[in-house]
Every structure is written in C-alpha cells, then in structure tokens.
TrEMBL record, chain A:
Its EC number is 1.2.4.1. It comes from Denticeps clupeoides. Its cofactor is thiamine diphosphate; Mg(2+). InterPro entries: DH_E1, PDH_E1_Alpha_Subunit, Pyrv_DH_E1_asu_subgrp-y, THDP-binding. It catalyses: N(6)-[(R)-lipoyl]-L-lysyl-[protein] + pyruvate + H(+) = N(6)-[(R)-S(8)-acetyldihydrolipoyl]-L-lysyl-[protein] + CO2. One of its GO terms (cellular component) is mitochondrial matrix. It comes from the Eukaryota. The gene is pdha1a. Pfam families: E1_dh. This is Pyruvate dehydrogenase E1 component subunit alpha. GO terms for molecular function: metal ion binding; pyruvate dehydrogenase (acetyl-transferring) activity.
From TrEMBL, chain B:
The lineage of its organism: Eukaryota, Metazoa, Chordata, Craniata, Vertebrata. Gene3D superfamilies: 3.40.50.920, 3.40.50.970. Its EC number is 1.2.4.1. It comes from the Eukaryota. It comes from Denticeps clupeoides (denticle herring). This is Pyruvate dehydrogenase E1 component subunit beta. Its cofactor is thiamine diphosphate. Pfam families: Transket_pyr, Transketolase_C. GO terms for molecular function: metal ion binding; pyruvate dehydrogenase (acetyl-transferring) activity.
Amino acid sequence: MRKMLTIISTVLRGNAGKNGAEVLSEGARAVVAARTYADFTQQATFDIKKCDVHKLEEGPPLTSTLTREDGLKYYRTMQTMRRMELKADQLYKQKIIRGFCHLYDGQEACAVGIEAGINLTDHLITAYRAHGYTLTRGGTVREIMAELTGRRGGIAKGKGGSMHMYAKNFYGGNGIVGAQVPLGAGVALACKYQEKNELCVCLYGDGAANQGQIFETYNMASLWKLPCIFICENNKYGMGTSVERAAASTDYYKRGDFIPGLRVDGMDVLCVKEATKFAADFCRSGKGPILMELQTYRYHGHSMSDPGVSYRTREEIQEVRSKSDPISMLKDRMLNNNMASVEELKEIDIEVRKEIEDAAQFATTDPEPPLEDLCNHIFYNEPPMDVRGTNPWSKLKSMS
Amino acid sequence: MAALRCFLRSGKNAVAAGLRREIHQTAPASLQVTVRDALNQAMDEELERDDRVFLLGEEVAQYDGAYKVSRGLWKKYGDKRIIDTPITEMGFAGIAVGSAMAGLRPICEFMTFNFSMQAIDQVINSAAKTYYMSAGLQSVPIVFRGPNGASAGVAAQHSQCFAAWYGHCPGLKVVSPWNSEDARGLLKSAIRDDNPVVFLENELMYGVPFELSEEAQSKDFTVPIGKAKIERQGNHITLVSHSRMVGHCLDAAAVLAKEGIECEVINLRTIRPMDIETIEASVIKTNHLVTVEGGWPQFGVGAEICARIMEGPAFNYLDAPAVRVTGVDIPMPYAKILEDHSVPQIKDIMFSVKKTLNVPLRVKYRGHILLCHCVLCCSVSQ
C-alpha cells in the first residue's frame, strides 16, 4: 500500500512540473513511507486567465500564488457552501423550507475568492442569493440553515428568512433587485467618512445591472470617490431571461462608463481573488470606485420554484459542471501540484458532510420563534410599546 | 375685525398675528423665531453635537437649501457634512440608508416629499423594515425630511400630502410639526432617534414666526416623538389636526369662541406612533370630535383617528359621529380660486364644528339672514 502511494505521488509530482512548484524539503522527492505534512508542496503559483479591462492601464496579475493552507481553506469553504445549498434544496423539496430560496451552487468561487481578496473588517452587501456570503462573512451553517427553516436559532431569529440574513459588516441579503447597490455605496460613504481605510463590496446580478438606481449610484460613487467595489455576478440569466435578451450591452464591466472595470473568470477562485485584491488596492488608494464583472454560472434555477431548464438546456448545465466547476478546478490544481492528497480532501468532504448533517438536524429540530417575539424589533433602543393585533382587543407587546 | 386679521395670519401679517394670538405669560427671554430658522438651528446644533450627523440632498449645500432651511450650514461644516446630491432620489436615499446602516446618522432631505415617491422603496423596504427583518441586528438611524403637502400655486404633482402613506408603515416614525417649537424640538428628537424618522415639514409655515420660550431655545430641548399637545383647552368639541391646519383650527376656535363655542385644539405633532390617548381623553371630556387635515380623505390621518376612536373607550362618550375635514378628493388645481377651495379653510372647520354640535348655521336667503339646520344649506356665510 505504501509503495503504491509512493509511486502515485511520484507520478503526480511529475505532472505538476509546470508553474514552478516550490518544494520545501529537498528530501520530499525521495521515496517516503507515509504521507506527512512535509511531503506536500507548501505553495504553488498558477497561471490564471487574463482579465478584460475597461479604462485601466493594466489589470490584475496573470499568476496567483496559492499556499497549501489557503488552498485547503478555500476548498473546505466552497465544499461547505456547495453541500449547504444542496441540503437546502432537499429540505425545500420536503417543504421544511418555505417561500423563496435562491441557491448559490456553481458560484462558490465568487464568494470565496472575494473574501480572500478583502478583510473581515471590510464591508459587503449583496442581493437575495446570499447564503454563500452569509457564510464567508462569519455566519455558521447552523444559523443559516435554521434561518431557512424559520427557527429561533436562525441568524435572524427566524424573522428574516432566506433573503434577510445579516452578520457583522454584512448588510444582507436584500430582496428588492438593485436596491442593495445604493445601500452599498452608502456603506462606502460611511467608510470614507470614518476614515478607517475600509471599503465596501457591493454585489448585484446581471438582471439587476440594468436598474436605474445602479447608474445613479455609479454617478455618485464616482463623483465622491467612494471606496466601493461594484461587482456584477453575471450568471448569464436574470431569472429566466438570458443576458442577450435583457441587456443592449452585455459588457457589464463597461456599463460603469467612467468607472474602470474588469471582466473576471468567476469560476476560478484564484482569478477572483487576484481581481478582488487588485480592486481593493485601487479603492484603498483613494481612486474611487471600480467595477468587476464575474462570469459565473448557477446550477440551480433562479429559485427553488424554477427547474431551470425551460430557458436553458440541460447540456449547457452539464457542460459547465464538467468543464468549469470551481471546486473541481481547485481540487485538480491542488492534487496535480502535490498540495494535498486525495485522502485529505476526502477527509474534508466527510467533515463537511457531517457539519451539514448536524446543521440540518439542528435546523429541523430547533423550535420556531416564540409568539412573544412577533412584535419585537420594530424599533431600536425604545421602551416597550403596544402593537395592535388583528383586532381591536388584541394589544401585543413590542420590545426593542 | 379681529376675525379678518386671523384669516390673514398665514403668511402676510404673520408677525402681528403671532403676537396677538393667545394671551400667554411670555417668558422674559423668549424670541420670535420662524419655523425655517428653528429647523436650521436644530440641525446646526445636532451637527455640532454629534460628528456622525450629516445632511445630504439636492441644493442643501451651496444653494443654502431650496427653501433656505439649511442656510449657512455648508459654510460652517463644509463638504464632508453637508453634501449636494445630483437629482437622483432613489440613489441618494439608498446611499443615505446605507450610511446609516454603517454607523453614520444621516439627514436625507427630499426637496419636497412628492419626490420621495421615487425613493419610497428605500424608505420602506431598506430603512423601515430592516431592524425587524434582522431581528435586531441592524438598526437604521436616519431622518428623511422635507416639505410635505400643499404649497401655493405649485399644482398637482407638487402638492401631495404623504402623512397617510408613511403613517401606514410599521418600522417608521412619522412626525408633522406645526410651529417653531414643534419644528425645533421634534427635529432634534428625530436626529437623536436611533430609528428611521419621516419628518414632514410645510413650506407655507417656513416663514411664519412663533414665540420660542427660553427653555425651547436651549441646546438640549427636545419634543418627545409620539406625544400630542393640547394647544387650546375647551369643553365643547375636540379638534385634532397636524401641521399647518393646527393654525387654521386655532383661528376657527378663536372665531367660534365669540359665539360661545369653546374648542379644544389638539396638535398631533406625531402621526406615527399616534397619541390616541390624548385624543380619547379629550373626546371623553367634550363628547364631540372633528379631525382636520390637508391631505385627501380616503385612508387618511382623520380616517385612522375616527377608526381608533370607534374601537376605543371614547366611542361611548360621543354625542355625534366623529367627522373629518380634509383636502378635496382631487389632484391639486393651479388657479388660485380653485386651489383655495381644494384645501380646508377656516370656514370649513367652523361649519363642521357647528354641524357636529348641531348649532344652527346663519344662512343668506333672499336677502335675509336665517338660522338654519337644513342639510341642503351648503354655501354658508358666517
């Protein structure tokens, strides 16, 4: 068995000869009995796709260096996100999750790559396809799933649901298409006002990209040089309308006109990370806003009520899955460069599966919010007040 | 003669009328301050008190405010805190809300509340509902302010009253000041409030001076949101109103007093949360209720008051149905004669009071003045 592993590892290392892998210990190339920490490549540099640029002299770098530690972290997070969304799909079909449920599977590289390019002290706001971002911004799988099932252990105590999840420096989760964009610029205004060198990442989809308020926001963000990274997650379909049928110009990275833009491969977590770092540096240098278009894809339909095949073909979905899946891409890169082993990644898969199962268990057994909570949280920092119930004799209590 | 002077109060002989209005013991250091100046000083003091407070809107900075309410503030505080925006309400209202979410305390000015319709999604869905949706994680300390309701000769698209629209929504506080003390105290309270407040001013009141007591002039003077004020005590009938119409009610009350009818005039001050207790206590005393507002009747402020009175303890004390005096149910016309007849006049308030009290109305018929209870006598001369 050990000999087999050795042979396999040598073969794999041979394939990883490209891209200048740096090997920490010289002795690693020698025959090893067991796979230990010291056997793995600690760091590797990868070629990434060149970004199209708009009103920029140069774009992000064409290579990205990935450490083993980061690689495993990104893998784990993306896998967690993937499995969490698939579990939500299951629970929705069992009618344990109700209402709207917009799933993010396929787009994991965007959320993870963006977070890799900014700090937790930066700010982020997105639209309703928000479960992935709630996770990267500090929410736990338990809290997210319990919010989807409407339980008191949910991240918003069950009162928000799928589209209204919040965390520190994460402003949701917004249901009205496009409304989050001016909000995000407002957060950026606060960043600039408070002089803390923080920025705001403000996300919207290809469908929202045609909203008037977004152009109003581009104007003000640019005028006032707000530290705002506008990011268009272009997953090719606004609900059931393909980009060609919705937008006269599908070059979303150019739609900011006077705002510099980048078009980025949103299925490659390293590409997203480098582009985000580039954009963040741009913002922090006081040059004002910048726009990124992430070309990505969602495997599910628009929401759980959309099978997602009436306006696109199953072949198209399958092709993206087999050729551009973000998790597979990262996995292949790491394995081919001896940055991780198959077993190790399997181990992570098992841990993730367990975490999701536990979270689902919690989300289905945690009790619903108490009725006493019905009228709470109307106002902040207020003495208790009465709220009219459904009839004049029903006076309900509201606490802050 | 005195009655005529009262009618001229709004605008023209404001100063004279202000002094002659009620016989108060005036405090030694009280000042005549216009509503505009009261708002200006309130904002100035709050900007000074808290670094996080800032003002944004169209023409608020270098133009000194479209109605000069923010005069002098840009010169004093500069570009960082007094921000001129492009004419993009939805955008800048959203930016204001976002900045409130991230720790600032914005005052978002709408040049008039008619333009707030462009931005109403941000006011309701982004500001009002967020604290609830986030179960207390995300508060939104913002003030939306600007002139509301009818002005003079600005026609249909610029004359709508939004008290009922915003008053409908949980998560918002909605205030509607009448005089300078209201304006000053309520604006300071609104800015200090940690929740979204819609602050409905009135353009026709901006230039009207009122007495500000020494207490009201102090930097920490606030008027509590959610509490109505009894502007005039009376025993025969309760008049409830907000904003400019409070002045009309007081004028009507002054004329009616000469005929022996003593009106209790309540200034709502806050539309939401409404101080129904003060109205109930008054109705229990007077047994009669007339609400007066500038906005349209259907689903309006008066409709809400009447519904609540019906549902509460005061109903059993009513000797006559509670009625509403409102703006005419039409888009606002331009021609002066039409415009004048589109909003409640003092005579309309007096008519409604007398009808409610079942007091005979003086009617001209074939050259004679008659007393008549007849429902058909709608063109009434006092």
